[in-house]
Design goal:
Blueprint lengths: L1 E16 L4 E14 L2 E8 L8 H15 L7 H11 L4 H19 L3 H4 L12 E3 L4 H10 L4 E5 L5 H9 L5 E5 L6 H13 L2 E5 L7 H10 L4 E3 L6 H7 L5 E5 H4 L2 H13 L3 E5 L5 H10 L5 E2 L12 E2 L2 E3 L2 E3 L9 E2 L8
Parallel strand pairs: 4-5, 5-6, 6-7, 7-8, 8-9, 9-10, 10-11
Antiparallel strand pairs: 1-2, 2-3, 12-15, 13-14
Helix pairs in contact: 1-3, 2-3, 7-8
Length: 343
């Protein structure tokens, strides 16, 4: 197989801030996997919080390209397994290639990836829309600018409950909150009681990932479900989260793509946990890949394309939170223009 990759700078519509990072531009790499005259597309993001810089992704994708020259896969999972066996590339780059392999395979077979994964007959959950941290007035402005049936609200300040209380004055939508590791155990338990009264559905990653003792307490005493994000990055983390979280958030970039994500869903179900699918600030390439997994999920945070101003691709879209799948095979992705900078 032939692998190329292109670098893009995604401009965010608004400055995006969480408890541990902020950005106005998101650098991404789109992998282009070719075989038999068919091109498949996948995506990964630069993420300094997780130590993933541009140089690392470039190096990993170059290594993957050299290795894949000898591979002619029969199924998309074979690409992931081959790269794990024959290279030392990290999960972020592996995600881009893995997504591209599913897109390529679906196009070759004339089927959607969600059909291949076994979820074409299920209704996917609605996606939330994220309100990043800012002044309360700015957060209210963002909410009003995008009427939506459910919102994910980024928190991690001394005024978290007051923020949610003010936002509640402007909508009846369902709220979810993401503390991005900013709270302590007792704080999370206390805030959960107030947030429940304000119509919050669950809390995502309230504590530092290293605080397992605190999470055990939160898990037992919180009146709201708690969902692991930073605590659940790869397949190996799923079992560890059982008994500490009520559910896990799977992000394709962190776990290495659709192949491991699909296994993580099944593992979480066996352990009695709920499953959420999350995203970074990705274009339609990465979001459309995540959407293929969506019918298997309880919750979905796939609003990446809604937050950017210069999407380089076309894929799934959203109608008041509902995924609209294009009538095209694979992940449903089309690049709007041939990339200029190929690696």
């Amino acid at each position: 197989m032939e692998l190329q990759a292109a670098r893009f700078e995604l401009r965010l519509k608004d400055h995006f801030k969480t408890a541990h990072s902020q950005r106005s531009v998101q650098v991404v790499f789109i992998a282009i996997l070719r075989q038999d005259g068919i091109s498949g597309y996948g995506e990964t993001t630069v993420n300094t919080y997780f130590g993933i810089d541009e140089a690392t992704i470039r190096q990993d994708l170059a290594e993957a390209a050299r290795a894949l020259q000898s591979l002619v896969p029969a199924r998309p999972e074979e690409v992931h397994a081959f790269l794990q066996q024959h290279t030392a590339i990290g999960n972020f780059a592996l995600c881009a290639v893995d997504e591209a392999a599913y897109d390529w395979y679906g196009k070759k077979q004339g089927i959607s990836t969600r059909s291949y994964l076994g979820g074409a007959d299920r209704q996917p959950p609605l996606t939330d829309y994220t309100i990043g941290l800012a002044s309360v007035d700015k957060m209210v402005e963002k909410l009003k600018a995008r009427p939506w049936p459910l919102y994910k609200i980024k928190l991690g300040t001394e005024d978290d409950v007051a923020i949610v209380r003010e936002l509640r004055q402007h909508t009846n939508a369902v709220f979810r909150v993401d503390a991005n590791c900013a709270w302590q155990a007792e704080e999370a338990i206390a805030k959960a009681r107030e947030l429940q009264e304000l119509g919050v559905e669950y809390i995502e990653q309230p504590l530092d990932p290293a605080d397992w003792q605190g999470m055990k307490q939160v898990y037992k005493e919180s009146v709201l479900p708690v969902i692991a994000d930073e605590s659940c990055q790869t397949e190996e983390d799923v079992a560890r989260c059982a008994g500490y979280f009520h559910g896990i958030n799977i992000k394709l970039t962190k776990c290495g793509g659709l192949t491991p994500a699909n296994r993580m869903v099944r593992q979480a179900r066996v352990l009695g946990m709920q499953v959420m699918g999350g995203c970074m600030n990705e274009s339609s390439v990465g979001i459309s890949a995540l959407a293929q997994l969506a019918p298997q999920l309880n919750y979905l945070d796939a609003d990446g394309t809604l937050l950017i101003a210069n999407d380089p691709a076309r894929g799934v879209s959203f109608d008041n939170g509902m995924i609209v799948y294009p009538a095209t095979p694979g992940n449903g992705v089309t690049l709007l223009a041939e990339p200029v900078e190929l690696l």
